[in-house]
Amino acid sequence: MSARGRVATCVFLAATFAAACAPSTSDGPPTASPTTAPDTATGANAAVPRPSHVVVVVLENHGTEQVSSNSQAPYLNELAAAGARFTDATAITHPSQPNYLALFSGDPQGVTDDSCPHTFPGPNLARQLIDADYSFGAFAEDLPDPGYPGCRSGDYVRWHAPWVDFTTVPAAVNRPFTAFGPDYTRLPAVSFVIPNMCHNMHDCDTVTADAWLRAHLSAYASWAATHNGLLVVTFDEAEDTSATNGIPLSLTGPMIRPGTYAEPVNHYRLLRTLEAMYGLPALGHAADTKPISDVWRP
Predict the structure, then answer these.
(1) Alpha helices in the chain (DSSP H)
(2) What is the spatial distance between Cα 14 and Cα 16, in angstroms, rounded to a whole number?
(3) Fewer CB within 10 Å, N or C, the chain?
(4) Counting beta carbons within 10 angstroms of the beta carbon of residue 70, is it exposed (0 to 12), middle (13 to 18) or buried (19 or more)?
(5) pTM
(6) CATH number for domain 38-230+246-288, candidates 1.10.287.1770, 3.30.70.100, 3.40.720.10, 3.40.50.300
(7) Cα–Cα dist 49/295, whole Å
(8) Is the predicted pLDDT of residue 221 greater than 90, yes or no?
(9) What is the pLDDT of residues 287-297, one digit of tens each?
(10) Cα separation of 151 and 277, whole Å?
(11) pLDDT (tens digit, 9 = 90+) per residue, 77-90?
């Protein structure tokens, strides 16, 4: 790692642990204090914090063993070491598109391939947030224009942007990645970041994607450490040949209790956790699980 990279890492880690000892600050409408959201799967209540901003980054087609402790992915492993690293995270199926739909709507919507286009009228995370007076946004690299409905442009592909498929979601939530930052106080409550087909590890190597993430997400990660923000990094699926479909998943932010967690987490449980943060009901198969509840600081 370069001297500059080491300095950036130290700043981020210092900010993260300093934030744990100081009162958290909030730039958005949601409160920084923990909120109790109903767990419809068990009838119990799970205490889940409400970040001011959540950014979910979705990468492509790499299993846990291909990323964890891999020298080709130093930034991903720095983030995981500073936050909660899940060692038993799994995707729902193969190939890519049904996993994105599962994470966004709680169901693959009958899709079993990467075909395009599709149109669905049903409920989804974006609509839930908007109806509850929160906000949702997506930032896709190589998207040519806000609200672009096409299946492909350059290295942008629509089958990695499930919000485009739902008639209940305003087209304007799909924005080019150039609109991400630098004023992170203006981010929606929940944002998805979709790198292009190179920088998501689909078409390019791990080193290239990891370097892109450091260059484009480290500023948000450092800012989030002192502004009640959460960064989630996950993958759509492992390689198509993977039987276990185990994927890397990490959560990093001042509300996280750093450590390695061996509990099962899939896209439905991650969706359930995002919904619980904002007091939203569980969608689809997310109702069959419960929010992640043991990684949060008291």
Answers:
(1) 3-21, 64-67, 74-82, 96-105, 125-131, 206-224, 267-277
(2) 5
(3) C
(4) middle
(5) 0.86
(6) 3.40.720.10
(7) 10
(8) yes
(9) 999 999 999 99
(10) 32
(11) 999 999 999 999 99
